[in-house]
Amino acid sequence: MEKKDIKKIVLAYSGGLDTSIIIPWLKENYGDPEIIAVSGNVGQADELEGLEEKAIKTGASKCIVADLTEEYVNDFIIPCMKAGAVYEEYLLGTSHARPCIAKKLVEIAQEEGADAICHGCTGKGNDQVRFELAVKALAPTMKIIAPWREWSIKSREEEIDYAEAHNVPLKISRETNYSKDKNMWHLSHEGLDLEDTGNEPQYEKPGFLEMSVSPLQAPDVPTYITLEFEKGVPVALNDEKMSAKDIILALNKLGGENGIGLLDIVENRLVGMKCRGVYETPGGTILYKAHQYLESLCLDKMTAHEKEKLAITFAELVYNGLWFSPLRKALSAFVDSTQEKVTGKVKLKLYKGNIIKAGAWSPNTLYSEKICTFGESDYNQADATGFINLFGLPTQVQAMAEQGLL
C-alpha cells in the first residue's frame, strides 16, 4: 500500500514522547491522514490524565481510551504467573501488556475501517516485534507503520527538539528523560545514567522510584500477609475475597511500602543487544513467590520439574512477542492442567525488600508429616535397601566393568 492510499491510521498512543510527536509527523509525511489515537488502559493511572485533549490538540481526530485492566490481568498476567514464566529474572511486565493492547488496536482498526496501524516503538527494542507479531496474528493483511524505522530522528534529544518545534506539550525534561513503561504490574526505567552499568540505580533519590521505596527506607517492622488461591488463581488477600486485579493493586501498595520487587538487570533483547533496565514489580513479585510456595505442596515431583523447564520456553515466547502462537496456547493448556490442585493459602512476611515464607496450607497437599517425620512413623526404612540396590545397579555395574570384575 502506497503512502498516498493511507487515509485513516489507528495509532497506539501513550501520550509519551514517542507517540506525541508521531501525530504531527504522520500528518506531514503521510498526506494528512485521519489519525485515531488509541490508548489501552492497562493500569497506567495518572499517565492517562489529559490524554484525549492532548491527542486532539496535536492533530488526532479522536482519542479512544479503552479499559483493558480486567482483560490484562485475567487473560495475560495470570496465565504467565501460573506458568511461573520469568525471563532472566524479569517478570514480563512490558512483554505481556503489548499483545493485550495490540488486540484492542486491531479491533478498533477493523471497526473504524482503518488502512493502517502505527506504533511508536524504536527499531532497537523488543516492543516493535511484540506489537507487529500480534497484529500479524490477528489481522495479517493490515499495514503497519513504524516511524522510528523511517524518520531521520536519531535520539530522544532530537525528539524533544521536534516536539518543541511543533508545540507538542511534554511532561518530561531533558534531565529527567528516562525511558519508562508503566502499567498495573510494573514500572521500567531505562536510559540516562542507567546506560552505564557501573552506575548504581538511584533508589534513594526522590522521584526515581514510583511504585516502591528503597529497602533502606522501608519500615523496621515486618508486614505479614496471607494469600489464597483456587486452581492457581489468587482469590483472597488477608482473608478478604477480591478479584485478581484488586489483589495485584493491593499487593503493589503493600509490596511497595516494604521495598519489594526491585530488579536491576542487563537483559538479552530479542533484537540481539544487551540492555540495562531497572524494574519495579512489587505486587507481582509477591504473587509469583506465593504461587510458587503453594505449588511446592500441591505438585508432584515430575510435573513440577517439567513445568519448571517449560516455564523458560513460555517466558521466551511471551518476551519474543509470540503470545498468539500455537505453542504458547498449548503450553497454557498444559499449565492449566497442572493448576487443578493448586488450591490453598500461604502466609508471607515482607521485610525491607525480602519475602520470607511464614506458612502454607492446602487441602490438596502432597506433604505428609506422618511420612516424613523424624519421629516414629509407618515408613519402613528397611525398604530403602532394595531401592538403593536397584537404583545404583547401573553405577555398580559400570564400576565393576572398569575394574575387570564382571
List the helices and strands and how they pair.
Elements: E1 8-12, H1 17-29, E2 34-41, H2 51-57, E3 62-67, H3 69-83, H4 97-112, E4 116-118, H5 127-138, E5 143-145, H6 156-165, E6 179-182, E7 187-190, E8 223-230, E9 233-237, E10 240-241, H7 244-257, E11 262-268, E12 274-280, H8 282-298, H9 301-319, H10 326-338, E13 344-351, E14 354-361, H11 369-372, H12 383-391, H13 393-402
Parallel strand pairs: 1-2, 1-4, 2-3, 4-5
Antiparallel strand pairs: 6-7, 7-12, 8-9, 8-13, 9-10, 11-12, 13-14
Helix pairs in contact: 1-6, 3-10, 4-5, 7-8, 9-10
Strand order of the largest sheet: 3-2-1-4-5
Number of helices: 13
- Main sheet specs: 5 strands, parallel
Order of helices and strands: EHEHEHHEHEHEEEEEHEEHHHEEHHH
Q: Roughly what percent helix?
A: 25-40%
Q: Count every beta strand, where a strand is a DSSP E run of 2 or more residues.
A: 14
Mean pLDDT: 95
Low-confidence stretches: none
* Rg, Å, rounded: 25 Å
Structural class: alpha/beta
Strand percentage lies at 15-25%
Any idea what the shape is?
A: elongated
User: Distance between the terminal alpha carbons, to the nearest Å?
Assistant: 76 Å
Describe this protein with a few key phrases.
406 residues, alpha/beta, five-stranded parallel β-sheet, five-stranded antiparallel β-sheet, argininosuccinate synthase activity, arginine biosynthesis, Arginosuc_synth, Rossmann-like_a/b/a_fold
